[in-house]
């Protein structure tokens, strides 16, 4: 890194020149066929027609100013968060601050009719302030990587609440699906002027906080010795980040990765010195956003590419690079198996990563039937029975509950075909097929999560976190766009293919399975964020009615699901579950090092590939039914392991738990709101975020 102060003027000069050049290019560039010479003449005072005046004065100039203001705001806010949390991965988009601001705007639109820039700012401030407070509270307790994962949990919960509001309000969803892409098209000058006081105030507070932040980087005690108050500094940063991020979201929507990119550039180029880094991050953010906006107008003319997707294409690789840096890896020990165990040639049991506090002696009971005998694990068998009962109970409740509620007796009569005609139709043709679909999807996701957690020896290594789910989603959406099928889930068979491609990419980039587990978790998170931007782009390019239906599926929904998609997945489970049980013994041997495993007759590489293939296919099948129902693959193995104990992998309990969770979430979504149905994935997102936070807090690994 370049640390000499004499390089700073040159760096700032180059950034300023790039910003001016891009600003000129932004004013001269657009989808229209107006010659640059006409624009220059108009800017120099020549009279033009109404069309030229409208394009330049009403569209391009406000758009350019908005890009500079939003880019600078997000760049500075990202650098402030990175400085106060001492975490190079901190960024308002990744830590959920932008999601909080976006939720505030959606609440304002739905419940208060907010339409102006000033109204957007007020509501965005409330959401951003709450999210920033949570981030800073967690930042004092978590390592850099855990803070990033906690931000993902917070973002998932806030996004789930936002989706719940949008499902019930198609008009607001129509505005949101374009706004969430981070587009600067059509931003009026009035909106930029309305939020400019908040941006100026945030930038001013950032300047005042530069020196105290430099002292705070040496430790709270040193900062106090130098005359600073750490508590007051953190409050100042909280307010500044809130103002900047809320103003940016109010103008352009939740643009992610920009603060991460700007902070990375500032640290790499300038090295030490927080004050210059904050200033350069603002310039870098403006340059990146303005350059991306110009590129978005010309890359697929006459249409515009989503700005958030272009920035995600830049930010995802940077996230992976920063996560693999020494500074971050040094604080990632809580996500890696202990080095002392590696040195002794012993790794912890895969079951140890999915629950419990210490391996327990075997509780198996020998059962003999003539010449045959089998060891029956008592605790895990009892847990499986209990979980099967819970799954069955969830199905019974799902049959009786709904907008057209009925008693258990009426539901049973309808199930047997002896009740009223309308109730028979409702139970046998609508609710029962949906319940079967939910049970199979949940079982597939639960077993997939159990296998990936055991394979990586990490509770957080689930298809949700590794980007595998999003790979399946994109494959199914692309297949739907390329065909004339009436519904997306008719292409359920493409889910495993997309999941397999995503798994190959994630593990290929991160260097394989079993080493430095935090690497593929962060790589998966980067891929998930990038894929999410692509999914939002595909939604924006569809008509409103089609986009509304597809949006419900992309967050995880069982609406309209039935036997045609549930039965193939059930057949797949009937084949893959015994295969997973057959590989369980081999997977247990992998707790030892490569040489010991090979000596016991197990090929570590082959076993890992087989387990990964099973997990990927199961995840793809589950998503083919219900979409990416979030956190089921994370929660199901953890809950099952708590009941069955840490001595064995919950290969039976995890799918049973997943089935119960999905059906329960679907039932809650059907009955919690009058006149509207909340997708099951939205319910699991809202509840799964706190569950992930609990997992991070309760597990030192």
Automatic annotation (TrEMBL):
Its main location: membrane. GO terms for cellular component: plasma membrane. The keyword Protein transport does not apply. The keyword Transport applies. It comes from the Bacteria. It is a multi-pass membrane protein. It is found in: Cell membrane. It holds the Pfam family FecCD. CDD domains: TM_ABC_iron-siderophores_like. The chain crosses the membrane at residues 61-81, 93-114, 120-140, 147-168, 192-214, 235-266, 278-300, 307-325, 382-402, 435-456, 468-489, 496-514, 520-541, 562-584, 609-639, 678-697. Keywords: Cell membrane, Membrane, Transmembrane, Transmembrane helix, Transport. One of its GO terms (biological process) is siderophore-iron import into cell. One of its GO terms (molecular function) is transmembrane transporter activity. Belongs to the binding-protein-dependent transport system permease family. FecCD subfamily. This is Iron complex transport system permease protein. It comes from Planobispora siamensis. The lineage of its organism: Bacteria, Bacillati, Actinomycetota, Actinomycetes, Streptosporangiales.
């Amino acid at each position: 890194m370049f640390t000499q102060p004499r390089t700073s003027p040159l760096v700032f000069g180059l950034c300023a020149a790039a910003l001016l050049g891009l600003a000129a290019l932004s004013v001269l560039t657009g989808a229209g066929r107006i010659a640059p010479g006409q624009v220059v003449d108009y800017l120099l005072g020549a009279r033009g027609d109404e069309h030229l005046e409208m394009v330049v004065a009403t569209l391009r100039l406000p758009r350019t100013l908005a890009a500079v203001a939003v880019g600078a705001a997000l760049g500075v806010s990202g650098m402030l968060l990175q400085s106060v949390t001492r975490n190079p991965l901190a960024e308002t988009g990744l830590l959920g601050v932008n999601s909080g601001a976006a939720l505030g705007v959606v609440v304002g639109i739905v419940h208060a009719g907010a339409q102006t820039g000033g109204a957007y700012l007020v509501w965005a401030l409330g959401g951003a302030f709450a999210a920033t407070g949570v981030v800073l509270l967690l930042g004092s307790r978590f390592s850099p990587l855990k803070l990033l994962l906690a931000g993902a949990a917070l973002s998932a919960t806030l996004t789930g609440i936002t989706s719940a509001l949008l499902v019930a309000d198609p008009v607001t969803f129509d505005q949101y699906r374009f706004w969430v892409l981070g587009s600067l098209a059509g931003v009026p000058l009035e909106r930029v002027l309305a939020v400019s006081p908040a941006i100026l105030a945030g930038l001013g507070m950032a300047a005042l906080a530069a020196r105290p932040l430099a002292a705070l980087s040496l430790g709270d005690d040193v900062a106090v010795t130098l005359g600073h108050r750490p508590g007051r500094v953190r409050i100042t940063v909280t307010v500044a980040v809130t103002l900047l991020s809320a103003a940016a979201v109010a103008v352009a929507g939740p643009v992610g990765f920009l603060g991460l990119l700007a902070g990375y550039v500032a640290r790499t180029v300038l090295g030490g010195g927080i004050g210059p880094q904050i200033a350069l991050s603002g310039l870098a953010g403006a340059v990146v956003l303005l350059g991306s906006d110009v590129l978005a107008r010309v890359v697929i003319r006459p249409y515009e590419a989503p700005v958030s997707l272009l920035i995600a294409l830049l930010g995802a690789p940077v996230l992976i690079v920063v996560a693999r840096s020494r500074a971050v890896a040094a604080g990632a020990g809580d996500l890696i198996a202990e080095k002392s165990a590696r040195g002794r040639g012993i790794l912890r049991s895969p079951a140890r990563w999915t629950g419990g506090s210490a391996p327990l002696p075997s509780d198996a009971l020998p059962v003999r039937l003539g010449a045959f005998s089998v060891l029956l694990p008592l605790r895990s068998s009892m847990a499986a029975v209990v979980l099967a009962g819970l799954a069955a109970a969830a199905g019974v409740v799902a049959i009786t509950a709904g907008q057209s509620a009925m008693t258990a007796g009426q539901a049973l009569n309808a199930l047997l075909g002896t009740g009223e005609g309308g109730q028979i139709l409702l139970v046998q043709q609508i609710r029962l097929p949906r319940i079967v679909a939910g049970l199979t999807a949940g079982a597939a996701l639960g077993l997939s999560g159990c296998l990936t957690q055991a394979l990586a020896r990490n509770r957080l290594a689930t298809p949700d976190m590794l980007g595998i789910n999003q790979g399946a989603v994109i494959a199914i959406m692309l297949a739907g766009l390329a065909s004339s099928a009436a519904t997306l889930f008719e292409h359920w068979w493409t889910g495993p293919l997309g999941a397999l491609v995503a798994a190959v990419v994630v593990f290929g980039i991160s260097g394989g399975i079993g080493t430095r587990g935090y690497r593929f978790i962060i790589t998966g998170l980067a891929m998930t964020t990038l894929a999410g931007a692509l999914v939002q782009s595909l939604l924006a390019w569809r008509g409103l009615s089609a986009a509304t239906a597809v949006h419900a599926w992309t967050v995880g929904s069982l609406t309209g699901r039935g036997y045609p998609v549930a039965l193939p997945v059930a057949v797949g489970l009937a084949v893959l579950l015994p295969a997973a049980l057959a590989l369980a013994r081999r997977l247990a041997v992998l707790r030892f090092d490569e040489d010991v495993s090979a000596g016991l007759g197990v090929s570590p590489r082959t076993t890992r590939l087989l387990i990964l293939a099973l997990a990927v296919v199961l995840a793809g099948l589950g998503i083919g039914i219900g979409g990416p129902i979030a956190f089921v693959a994370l929660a199901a193995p953890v809950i099952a392991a708590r009941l069955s104990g840490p001595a064995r992998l919950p290969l039976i309990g995890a799918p049973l738990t997943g089935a119960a969770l999905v059906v329960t979430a679907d039932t809650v979504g059907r009955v919690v709101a009058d006149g509207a149905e909340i997708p099951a994935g939205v319910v699991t997102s809202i509840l799964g975020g706190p569950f992930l936070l609990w997992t991070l807090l309760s597990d030192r690994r």
